[in-house]
User: Which sequence fits this backbone?
């Protein structure tokens, strides 16, 4: 929302959905800091930022079963950030059909594309990356996860429904070993890889990555799809 609000019309209505209430509460704090002014009433957050008036509703909801109930028939744009790779191919097909029913455009960002590359290399890089990719395919509540196939799955579903696609690579490049996001990312990869590979040496990989990495690249794909 923060990335795109300045490119969208002056009056905007957003509904932010997550099944974790803490994430939604954090979003209220972050958005209130980001805006010039912020006020809350009746569960709505009213923001003013520059010329923009933005109404935000928070919805704590598990959309694994029914994504369509998250938006209304007059919704212009549905966005998903770092979500699609957790879902399944059948959920993505269901999601695409729901978008087509309301003719909404969709922007799905930060979908993992399977790439994990680091410099300098480490003997366990391939083992860890393979285990991480296998962990990605575990069911996250949506059926067997699509993982790195998710972006292509969305593109295919939307194309079949007559939508246009604009897609591109959007990799994360980490160069700062002290950054919290880098540390969390390495710890997350090591934990997931260990659950699959069960190798004690993964903690050596984690240690070396945290202390020696000059550059870590995690590949992502962004997909925008719209009906002309
Ligand atoms: C990788 S995080 C991305 C968070 C945020 N969208 C972002 O881009 O920073 C995935 C998010 O999906 C949410 N999530 C996962 N499964 C969900 C479900 N079934 N219903 C609603 N939200 C879900 C998690 O709570 C988490 O916040």
Assistant:
């Amino acid at each position: 929302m923060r990335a795109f609000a300045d490119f969208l019309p002056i009056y905007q209505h957003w509904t932010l959905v997550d099944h974790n209430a803490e994430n939604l509460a954090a979003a209220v704090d972050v958005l209130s800091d980001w805006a010039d002014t912020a006020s809350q009433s009746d569960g709505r957050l009213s923001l003013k930022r520059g010329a923009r008036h933005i109404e935000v509703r928070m919805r704590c909801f598990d959309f694994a079963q029914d994504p369509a109930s998250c938006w209304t028939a007059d919704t212009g744009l549905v966005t998903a950030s770092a979500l699609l790779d957790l879902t399944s191919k059948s959920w993505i097909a269901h999601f695409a059909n729901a978008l087509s029913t309301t003719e909404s455009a969709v922007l799905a960002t930060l979908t993992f594309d399977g790439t994990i590359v680091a410099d300098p290399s480490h003997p366990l890089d391939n083992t860890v990356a393979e285990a991480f990719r296998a962990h990605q395919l575990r069911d996250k509540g949506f059926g067997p996860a699509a993982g790195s196939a998710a972006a292509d799955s969305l593109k295919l579903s939307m194309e079949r429904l007559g939508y246009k696609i604009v897609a591109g690579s959007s990799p994360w490049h980490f160069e700062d070993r002290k950054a919290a996001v880098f540390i969390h990312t390495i710890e997350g990869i090591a934990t997931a890889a260990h659950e699959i590979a069960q190798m004690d040496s993964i903690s050596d990989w984690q240690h070396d990555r945290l202390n020696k990495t000059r550059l870590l690249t995690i590949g992502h794909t962004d997909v925008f799809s719209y009906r002309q």
